[in-house]
Amino acid sequence: MNPPHLSASLRRRVRAQARYRCGYCLRTEELAGERMTIEHIQPISRGGLTVEQNLWLACRRCNEYKAAQTHARDPLTGKQVRLFNPRTQVWFEHFAWDASGVLIQGITPTGRTTVIALRLNNIEIVVARRLWVAATWWPPEE
Ligand SMILES: [Zn+2]
User: Fold this and answer.
1) Domain coordinates of the chain in residue numbers?
2) How far is the CA of 22 from the centre of ligand 1 (A)?
C-alpha cells in the first residue's frame, strides 16, 4: 500500500529510480493500466523504515503476494532465503525469461525463492504475458 506520508518529491524520485515498473515482475504502468504502488522492501511490520533506501515500486499483485515476507524457502534446497531486493540487486542477475518470454525463471536461490513467494508465474499473469508477447510488447530486455 502506498504510504500516505511520503512527500511528493520522494515519490517522484522512487518512481523514476524504478523506471515506473514493478521491481519484481518488471510489469510497466502502461501494461498494468494503473500506477505502481510504493512498497517497503523491508516491511514496516518487520522494522522497515519509510526512507528512500527502503522504498521501491511494485505492482499491486506482487505487493499483495509479498505482504510481510522477507524470506521464503528455496524450492530447490529447502533453505530459507532472503527475497530479491529490487533496489540493491540486479533483476537479470537473478531471473531470466524462458524461451517463450512468458515465464520468469529464478536462476539463483534468491530468484527461485522470489518466483515462488511472489507467485510471479501464476495463471492470471501468464495469460496476460502471452498476449503481450503476441503483441511484441514483451518481454523487456533490460
Ligand atoms: Zn509485479
Assistant:
1) 8-134
2) 5
